[in-house]
Write a structure and sequence with these properties.
The chain is mostly beta strands. The protein has one domain: Jelly Rolls, CATH 2.60.120.10. The strands form three sheets. It has a five-stranded antiparallel beta sheet with strand order 2-3-10-5-8, with no helix packed on it. It has a three-stranded antiparallel beta sheet with strand order 7-6-9, with no helix packed on it. The chain has a two-stranded antiparallel ribbon with strand order 1-4. The chain is globular and about 40 Å long. InterPro entries: Cupin_2, GPI/OXD, RmlC-like_jellyroll, RmlC_Cupin_sf. GO terms for molecular function: metal ion binding. This is Cupin type-2 domain-containing protein. Pfam families: Cupin_2.
Length: 122
């Protein structure tokens, strides 16, 4: 974790794309506000772009809440036992304990913001 804990201003171009564990097929993210980038303790804020067929493995969080905000493209999101098409301007809220995954099932890139709090499951 970064030792600094202060206000910051960064440009999205400053953060490299990376493929986090359990993300597959070109599921890339930029960790814009994260312990390793700005020293955040309570929030993880990422922009993600998934190429067609890219996905994150189905998972659940013990204590974390998440919000997905789809900016471009469309894909399929599994929430519990339900499967939903998600597209531009959809906002998805996930409380702790709900199994979920997202996959790009569209023809172009699927781009979305993911906000998670707290940063890690306890």
């Amino acid at each position: 974790m970064s030792e600094t804990y202060e206000a910051s201003v960064r440009n999205i171009a400053e953060e490299p794309w990376q493929q986090f564990p359990d993300h597959f097929g070109g599921a890339l993210s930029k960790a814009l506000v994260h312990p390793e980038t700005v020293g955040s303790r309570q929030i993880d804020y990422r922009i993600s772009t998934y190429q067609p067929m890219a996905y994150v493995a189905r998972h659940a969080h013990e204590v974390q809440e998440q919000v997905y905000h789809v900016l471009e493209g469309e894909g399929l999101m599994e929430i519990g036992d339900e499967r939903r098409v998600v597209r531009r301007n959809d906002v998805i809220f996930l409380p702790p304990g709900v199994p979920h995954m997202i996959q790009n099932t569209g023809l172009g890139d699927l781009t979305f913001i993911v906000v998670t709090t707290p940063v890690k499951d306890e």
